[in-house]
């Protein structure tokens, strides 16, 4: 982290400020720093007044008796006693004014296209909801969703929320063990999947992966299978009694359905994310507070208006997809674009083609994608008309100034504010971000807190500093309510660090003289590979399943495109010799069990790992080796000679 901190200090020193254009400010939902400051101060000093007023812009079946209940910290409750429904607010609420407006534009990788008006999306969601009820799903049941990014991803999420069940979306890039772990932990009753999806022209056999994943999962009663193509089937097996085709079972189901009244604190979804232990944790989000956070951040940070055509490139399997593909934009009656495929299929102008075709006005993507586009060259975006764009967003990892400036110039034509939004699966919605019509941005900084958020950079003992651990002082409506089945871990892991006074983010950060925040990355053993949180502990557990592996250490190192890439140091069992074939087998295990995006850049076979006398692996030293730096302090090593051998092996691998 020291290296990143030093680099960031340099950035701060050389940084320029960029102001939004007068024409952007004129049309913005929030127009001046004074207005931001006034609202921000109110949100901190009188959170109940502030959030109560925001929540009133949405529909509630019953009002709240209290905005925030802090009586049982850190188990905060928001909008106590109120009842609402997310799908109702995303769809029914708009029917009168926006019923014939396009809600969803879907483009499949092979080029198939569909659009849904708010009225049509409402009908499809009701039909799906009625089908789920027919299959025995009830309020509170867990439903896993493992789909490509097709319209049914959005529809099924909304349908589950509509009947008050709990969705657990599993990213389509996850493989068998990742699926199984999530289904077992959440005891899902039903799984929604499809016969397949497309990635770079290949069919991904999602149903086959689910079949393997549910093996040994007794909670699963039904698998609901959607045909990727409306009129033909991709090859997959169906098990009698368990598996049902959506197009068959949904036939004749009603296109209307009365949304279930949900308590504000009823669970809305579970989303698993990597933690410091081997198994992912199920982050719990509830109904009312999450809805208010998703709604307001979209309105203010993306400056959304009903006439916007908004495209967030995240998959719905990540939190960004939940809050900023599905819920947030629909709560704001915006038109949402989704795209199933890869940015270089069939050619490297595919994204820009989509922006041109649908006149996308707000575009939200990740730094790793921006760096990839930069590498491909300006001719691809330059070949399309991107003049519809008015605002650009970035999320998932720190964005380097080169990528930020390229994004601004080549994609935004120096005409679009960039919002670099910092947040996490746990936070539910954006916490640190520029406000596009207000904030002077500095490339590489997520800038200032959103309403209601009081961040601080702290030392281990809780003193405020300008370089340390990023912490959040106050609860906020869309915060996680816990870890599924493990509230003690929630309390200790997120609120234990400074005796319950702050939420611990696990990120390191710096502040500058303007009070801007510069996030530098994770302080724990999570590696951020192309914006995806990957747990080194989970990888280390999985490679042990290869009979030749005795022990391993995975680390993250700088990667020009992905931000971070993984390096695996592996000790083999006695009698085994490292070989290309063995590397391939280890990679196959990772790809098949966890997912291909978790593959290491490099595998290094070593005799030993650098450990402290208490047996803890010194990952910092491994990182020094892999990034080619002089080694830091080695005096705490149990056996300092170990590291010389590792340096040699790394060079040879
Ligand atoms: C939304 C999302 C969370 C972790 C987070 C941090 C990193 C996300 C960032 C950023 C710097 C940004 N992160 N946005 N770092 N600048 N704008 O990505 O959630 O998948 O849970 O990851 O991602 O390290 O702690 P999630």
TrEMBL record:
One of its GO terms (biological process) is acetyl-CoA biosynthetic process from acetate. Coiled coil: none annotated. SUPFAM superfamilies: Acetyl-CoA synthetase-like. Transmembrane segments: none annotated. Residues 92-483 form the AMP-dependent synthetase/ligase domain. Residues 538-616 form the AMP-binding enzyme C-terminal domain. One of its GO terms (molecular function) is acetate-CoA ligase activity. Its EC number is 6.2.1.1. Keywords: ATP-binding, Ligase, Nucleotide-binding. It catalyses: acetate + ATP + CoA = acetyl-CoA + AMP + diphosphate. Belongs to the ATP-dependent AMP-binding enzyme family. This is Acetyl-coenzyme A synthetase. It comes from Stentor coeruleus.
């Amino acid at each position: 982290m020291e290296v990143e901190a030093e680099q960031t200090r340099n950035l701060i020193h050389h940084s320029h400020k960029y102001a939004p254009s007068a024409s952007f400010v004129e049309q913005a939902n929030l127009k001046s720093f004074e207005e931001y400051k006034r609202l921000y101060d109110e949100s901190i000093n009188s959170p109940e007044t502030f959030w109560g007023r925001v929540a009133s812009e949405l529909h509630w079946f019953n009002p709240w008796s209290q905005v925030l209940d802090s009586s049982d910290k850190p188990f905060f409750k928001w909008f106590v006693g109120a009842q609402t429904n997310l799908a109702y607010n995303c769809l029914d609420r708009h029917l009168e004014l926006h019923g014939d407006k396009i809600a969803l534009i879907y483009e499949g990788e092979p080029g198939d296209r569909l659009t849904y008006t708010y009225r049509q999306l409402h009908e499809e969601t009701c039909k799906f909801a009625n089908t789920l009820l027919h299959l025995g799903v009830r309020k509170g049941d867990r439903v896993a969703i493992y789909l490509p990014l097709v319209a049914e991803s959005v529809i099924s999420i909304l349908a589950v929320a509509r009947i008050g069940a709990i969705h657990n979306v599993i990213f389509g890039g996850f493989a068998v063990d990742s699926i199984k772990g999530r289904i077992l932990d959440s005891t899902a009753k039903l799984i929604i999947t499809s016969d397949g999806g497309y990635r770079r022209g290949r069919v991904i056999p999602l149903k086959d992966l689910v079949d393997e994943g549910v093996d040994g999962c007794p909670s699963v009663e039904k698998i609901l299978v959607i045909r990727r193509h409306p009129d033909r089937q991709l090859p997959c097996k169906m098990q009698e009694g368990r598996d049902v085709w959506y197009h068959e079972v949904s036939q004749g189901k009603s296109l209307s359905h009365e949304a279930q009244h949900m308590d504000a604190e009823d669970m809305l979804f579970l989303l698993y994310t990597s933690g410091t232990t081997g198994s992912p944790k199920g982050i719990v989000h509830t109904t009312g507070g999450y809805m208010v956070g998703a709604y307001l951040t979209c309105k203010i940070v993306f400056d959304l208006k009903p006439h916007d055509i908004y495209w967030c490139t995240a998959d719905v399997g990540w939190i960004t997809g939940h809050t900023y593909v599905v819920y947030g934009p629909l709560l704001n009656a915006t038109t949402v674009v989704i795209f199933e495929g890869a940015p270089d299929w069939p050619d490297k102008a595919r994204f820009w083609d989509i922006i041109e075709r649908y006149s996308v006005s707000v575009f939200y993507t990740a730094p790793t994608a921006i760096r990839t586009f930069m590498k491909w060259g300006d001719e691809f975006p330059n070949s399309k008309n991107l003049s519809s764009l008015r605002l650009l967003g970035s999320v998932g990892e720190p964005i380097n100034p080169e990528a930020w400036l390229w994004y601004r110039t080549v994609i935004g034509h120096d005409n679009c504010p960039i919002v670099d939004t910092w947040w996490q699966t746990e936070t539910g919605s954006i916490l640190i971000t520029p406000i596009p019509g207000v904030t002077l941005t500095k490339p590489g900084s997520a800038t200032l807190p959103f309403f209601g958020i009081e961040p601080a950079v702290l030392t281990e003992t809780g003193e405020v500093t300008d370089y340390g651990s990023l912490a959040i002082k106050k609860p906020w409506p869309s915060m996680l309510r816990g870890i599924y089945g493990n509230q003690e871990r929630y309390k200790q892991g997120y609120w234990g660090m400074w005796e319950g006074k702050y939420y611990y983010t696990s990120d390191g950060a710096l502040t500058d003289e303007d009070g801007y925040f510069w996030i530098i990355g994770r302080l724990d053993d999570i590696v951020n590979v192309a914006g995806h949180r990957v747990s080194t502990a989970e990888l280390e557990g999985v490679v042990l399943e290869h009979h030749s592996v005795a022990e391993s250490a995975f680390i993250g190192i700088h990667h020009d495109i992905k931000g971070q890439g993984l390096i695996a140091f592996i000790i083999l069992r006695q009698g085994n010799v490292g070989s290309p074939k063995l590397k391939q087998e280890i990679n196959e295990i990772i790809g098949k069990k966890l997912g291909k995006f978790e593959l290491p850049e490099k595998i290094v076979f070593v005799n030993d790992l650098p450990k402290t006398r208490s047996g803890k692996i010194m990952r910092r030293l491994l990182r020094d080796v892999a990034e080619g730096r002089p080694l830091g302090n080695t005096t705490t090593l149990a056996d300092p000679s170990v590291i010389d051998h590792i340096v040699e092996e790394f060079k040879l691998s």
